[in-house]
Structures are given as structure tokens and as C-alpha cells.
Design goal:
Its EC number is 2.1.1.207. It contains nine helices and six strands; from the N terminus they run βαβαβαββαβααααα. It has 207 residues and is of the alpha/beta class. The longest helix has 15 residues.
Length: 207
């Protein structure tokens, strides 16, 4: 059984969608506070539909609390973490996944904190994506709308991109995957490598 970890998630619908994916794949969900919503949030449960009550979910007060309670804090502990970040050199598809591993995704506005990435450089992985100018015909218009001096009607575009991610005007890519898409992509690669029902284990080993 795999573990999906959301570090300080901010958008309830993303977490709801991820919860639904966890239920249908037999994956545990771990949420690290602070959360940008209440676990009673209607948007969260609407996205998760009737699945949420069947979800194996645990909430932690902090990253340190998560590491301690999952037995990952001890020096020399077996590396079971996969930190998904755009700042990694290694691709997620080049990683080796084992049953029980933890797939960690950062919050929508800023990802996984630099200090965590720096402490675990060998655990950092990324999902490849086309740059904005190749994936969006109107990338220039989006970039202008995200400028600090843009007009007031573009304020919503500065807050979130077209995928529902928050935008940092000083460091953003408007064509990034949203959190639930990214979680599904990496989780299914991990499941494929470990012989999830309906997926060819031998095929996974040869790709």
C-alpha cells in the first residue's frame, strides 16, 4: 500500500479529488497542517463524492510530527520518501517505487519548502512539462495578466492559474499541472511498477 502525503494543501477540491484516487487505489492519505480548509468543507466532500468516508486519512501537526509518527525521523532511516518538485533533476518515472513508500506533494502556492528539499536531495523528483510558450498559445497574455502592475480585473488570474494552482508572480509557470493531476500521475507510476491489478508488472520493469 502506498502513501500520498500533502504538505499544507490549500485548495479543498484538490484534496477531495486526491482522496477519491486514494480510495480506488487502496492508498493512504496523509495531510500535514496547516490546511487551507476545514475537513468539514463542503467543497472537499463534493470533490470526494461518497468516497471520503472510506478514506484512510491521517492528519499531522507539522512535517516533524509526520516524520516522527511514521518512523522516518531516525538518522539512517530507510529512504521511503519521494518529494515531487519542479526543482528536481531526476524524473519521477526514473525512480524505483516499493510498497509502503511515501509520495509527497507540496502546497499549491509554493510547493515543498526549500529546507525540506535541501535536507533530502536524493528524494527529489519532478514531472516533466512543456514550457509555457510551447503549451499555451496565449501564454504571453497570461504572463501580462500576472504582472504586478496588471489591471484590477486580472487580479483573479494573479491568484490562481488555469489549473487551479496559486501563482507567485515572481516565480510561476501558468501551464503547471494541478495538485490532483500530479498526484495521480506519480501514484499510478508507483502502482504500475509494483504490479497493481490490471497493470503488467513485467511491462513496468522493461519500460
Amino acid at each position: 500500500m502506498f502513501n500520498l502525503v500533502l504538505f499544507e494543501p490549500e485548495i479543498p477540491a484538490n484534496t477531495g479529488n486526491i482522496g477519491r484516487t486514494c480510495v480506488v487505489t487502496g492508498t493512504r492519505l496523509h495531510l500535514i497542517r496547516p490546511l487551507g480548509f476545514s475537513l468539514d468543507d463542503r467543497a472537499l466532500h463534493r470533490a470526494g463524492l461518497g468516497y471520503w468516508q472510506n478514506l484512510d486519512v491521517t492528519v499531522y501537526d507539522s512535517w516533524a510530527d509526520f516524520l516522527q509518527r511514521r518512523g522516518l525521523a531516525a538518522e539512517g532511516a530507510e529512504p521511503r520518501l519521494h518529494l515531487l518538485t519542479k526543482k528536481a533533476a531526476r524524473l519521477y518515472s526514473n525512480a524505483t517505487y516499493r510498497d509502503g513508500d511515501y509520495l509527497v506533494l507540496g502546497k499549491e502556492s509554493s510547493g515543498i519548502p526549500e529546507e525540506i528539499l535541501a535536507a533530502l536531495p536524493d528524494s527529489c523528483e519532478r514531472i516533466p512539462m512543456l514550457p509555457d510558450d510551447e503549451s499555451l498559445a496565449n501564454a504571453e497574455a497570461w504572463a501580462q495578466a500576472s504582472d504586478h502592475g496588471a489591471r484590477e480585473e486580472h487580479a483573479a488570474l494573479r491568484r490562481q492559474d488555469i489549473c487551479g494552482n496559486f501563482i507567485d508572480p515572481d516565480d510561476y509557470r501558468i501551464s503547471a499541472l494541478n495538485l490532483s493531476n500530479a498526484a495521480a500521475i506519480v501514484l499510478y507510476e508507483a502502482l504500475r511498477q509494483t504490479g497493481f491489478p490490471g497493470m503488467s508488472h513485467m511491462e513496468a520493469k522493461t519500460l
